[in-house]
Write a structure and sequence with these properties.
With 496 residues, the chain is an alpha/beta fold. The protein has two domains: 305 residues, TIM Barrel (Alpha-Beta Barrel); 130 residues, no CATH class. The protein contains 14 helices and 15 strands. Helix 5 crosses helix 6. The longest helix has 22 residues. The radius of gyration is 24 Å and the shape is globular. The relative contact order is 0.11. It comes from Clitoria ternatea (Butterfly pea). It is a lipid-anchor; GPI-anchor. It holds the Pfam family Glyco_hydro_17.
């Protein structure tokens, strides 16, 4: 009996210990964007998430391919609702019910997707939107909440709304002076109160990179977690980095309005690797390693010792994203467009990043400027460059970016090749008014961060995974892409 009792107690202790270890198991969260001309199959990306310890993911829209691939994986999902749907969801609860049934209930019941949050809108109160979504955001949140309750998911799935940090400010310039912007104060309090009553968190996006890139006088070292900038002293608290100061400004705003215990999620934070001089591999590695170190150590901020869930932005690059905010918008990924590693990261416990597996590429050939080309034919040459950079991603040629040091011939070769690759190396895709030629020699400058890419082979992936879903484009997306790409090309030609 004694041995049997000992064995029972031993097994019970083992169970308790294993549960404790499981609860304490480290997991990361990230954003999975789908604005790509050559998206990897969702199954490969889900494997990429799992291989690198990502247990939570945020989608900006209910992408069917991504959601199906996330089924039965255990990965917690935050599924987003784009801003262009806010008005219809706000005005008609039946539209919200239909959206929840199609994009939440179905994937939970039929595909086993672990959906935990619905993110209503994305930075809808951003100042640059000039109040376009202010009046529709809160009613849309209310209707989505009602739809979740009707579907029997009110406890399982929580509503939130990702907001930019510009919804709060500090007149004193210190975190303790934080409060919500006067023009949206009432809407913010209504949303916070409603979310609190229904158990939903607040979600905020914080971008130290944007603080640095937008202000030439911003102290660069204050943008990083290991920086040596002069600290900001706020009463008894000393701040050594802008992330802590920014987050605690929000906490002060919540405290001032009676919501000091409101749960908060960091929906987006990261650092891009290209597009401007501050967006480079060195800075991105430094910032993201510091961020991951905090997550591993479960480090909070001076005003909140318990760390929030932090969604790294982002998983992979997106080469068809709008560049209206800046050329860096297409380069936020920890991984390249093809799932390859940009730079090493220590993920804790001696683990390093793991690249995507099973990726198939187009043949090793490039479209470049012909050695016989006469670039003095300015009209035809400008037309060729405009064509290439309107339909392909030329942001690496931006001032301060990785390929900004190329000469005029190098610029043309880079632009021609990006178009050629984006068009899947079609035979007629390397015809630029007689300026171009196909080569089997990699034209990438030696010992340079500038790389002439080869795209993944969508055809081979489609044959292997028939559930692959290409990105959806609406008319607004396409027009924004064309306009922004045209403006970029114009600036590039002026720089040349």
């Amino acid at each position: 009996m004694g041995l049997q009792r000992f064995t029972t107690l031993f097994l019970l202790a083992l169970c308790i210990l294993s549960q404790g270890l499981a609860k304490g198991a480290l997991g990361f969260a990230c954003n999975w964007g789908t604005r790509s001309s050559h998206p990897l199959p969702p199954q490969i990306l889900v494997k990429l998430l799992k291989d690198n310890g990502f247990t939570q993911v945020k989608l900006f829209e209910a992408d069917p391919g991504a959601l199906k691939a996330l089924g039965n994986t255990g990965i917690q999902v935050m599924v987003g609702i784009p801003n262009d749907l806010l008005a219809s969801l706000a005005s008609n609860v039946n539209a919200a019910i239909a959206w929840v049934n199609q994009n939440v209930s179905t994937y939970i019941s039929k595909n086993g997707v672990n959906i935990r949050y619905v993110a209503v809108g994305n930075e809808a109160f951003l100042k640059t939107y000039n109040g376009q979504f202010v009046n529709s955001t809160f009613p849309a949140i209310q209707n989505i909440q009602a739809a979740l309750i009707k579907a029997g998911l009110g406890r399982q799935v929580k509503v939130t709304t990702p907001l930019n940090a510009d919804v709060y400010q500090s007149d004193s310039g210190l975190p303790s002076g934080g409060n919500f912007r006067p023009d949206i104060h009432d809407q913010m309090i209504s949303i916070i109160k409603f979310l609190s009553q229904n158990g939903g968190p607040l979600t905020f996006n914080i971008y130290p990179f944007l603080s640095l890139d937008a202000d030439p006088n911003f102290p660069k070292e204050f943008a990083f977690f290991d920086g040596s900038a002069a600290p900001v002293v706020d009463g008894s608290i000393t701040y050594t980095n802008v992330f802590d100061a920014n987050f605690d400004t929000l906490i002060s705003a919540l405290e001032k309005n009676g919501f000091g215990q409101m749960p908060v999620i960091i929906g987006e934070v990261g650092w891009p690797t290209d597009g401007t001089s501050n967006a480079n591999i060195k800075n991105a590695q430094r910032f993201n390693q510091g961020l991951i170190n905090r997550i591993v150590k479960k480090q909070g901020t001076p005003k909140r010792s318990t760390p929030p869930d932090i969604y790294l932005f982002g998983l992979i690059d997106e080469d068809t994203k709008s560049i209206e905010p800046g050329p860096f918008e297409r380069h936020w990924g920890v991984f390249n467009l093809d799932g390859s590693i940009k730079y090493p990261l220590n993920m804790g416990g001696g683990k390093s990043l793991v690249a995507a597996r099973g990726v198939r590429y187009l043949p090793k050939q490039w479209c470049v400027l012909s050695s016989q080309a006469n670039v003095q034919d300015s009209a035809a040459f400008a037309d060729s460059m405009s064509k290439a950079c309107t339909y392909a991603d030329c942001t690496c040629l931006s001032p301060g970016a990785s390929c900004s040091g190329l000469d005029i011939k190098g610029n043309a070769s880079y632009a021609f090749n990006m178009y050629y690759q984006t068009m899947d190396q079609r035979r007629d895709a390397c015809q630029f008014n007689g300026f171009s030629v196909i080569t089997n020699i990699d034209p990438s400058p030696p010992q340079s961060a500038c790389q002439f890419k080869i795209m993944i082979d969508l055809g081979k992936h489609e044959k292997k995974a028939t559930s692959f879903a290409a990105p959806k484009w609406n008319k607004i997306d396409f027009m924004v892409l064309l306009i922004s790409s045209f403006m970029f090309t114009l600036v590039l030609l002026l720089c040349i």
